[in-house]
Fold this sequence. Notes:
globular, 63% helix, single chain, 4-stranded antiparallel sheet, 10 helices, alpha+beta
Amino acid sequence: xxxxxxxxxxxxxxxxxxxxxxxxxxxxxxxxxxxxxxxxxxxxxxxxxxxxxxxxxxxxxxxxxxxxxxxxxxxxxxxxxxxxxxxxxxxxxxxxxxxxxxxxxxxxxxxxxxxxxxxxxxxxxxxxxxxxxxxxxxxxxxxxxxxxxxxxxxxxxxxxxxxxxxxxxxxxxxxxxxxxxxxxxxxxxxxxxxxxxxxxxxxxxxxxxxxxxxxxxxxxxxxxxxxxxxxxxxxxxxxxxxxxxxxxxxxxxxxxxxxxxxxxxxxxxxxxxxxxxxxxxxxx
Length: 284
């Protein structure tokens, strides 16, 4: 892998922890199975220990964090690590820092009312209440966490081990091949993202009677805005197609598309032409 690529990107690993607010009740699961004349593994009973509304804001911020993590990064492996282009580093860290601060504030608010939730739980749950199902405040606090770790992209030149030269070279070649494959997959992910939002616009807009949300166009705008920062291989074709999407699809406002049939038809045709060109490049 070239030195320039090592300098253009890094690996980022996001780890977020959140208490679900529910617990499996084995006794109740077996009880219902017996009452239903079913086998013990026919179903599982989960007790909602706290009202869902009490964790709603935390869960929403958590989901937003994961969504932003995926938006700014490219896939690297199945364990959740993703490539973060250097050009996107400042924007990514600023947004994640804001979301983490919001997450921690919401967790703090929840921990303040947590003792009250336990006090009210017996009345809310009735016979389902089990005091030992509720962690202490200290234990609960450790169930919420939000961390981002950064690592350099692996380089075969960093491989050091006491082996014969031909064996070392063989392992280095394997490392290079695996990294190149992952970079190729990461770039393909960008193409797939662009194909998805453009094809969705093409399919929706071609039907003059089909209703759509503003996000149909807004998603294209957002992706086209961030693509230059994610294009770590400086793919000229990707940039060319992105410019076409900006000029011929993303430039149309949803409000006007809903009332201007001619513009809607033209935009749908442009979107379809872009989709066809993307598919020809990968299937041709």
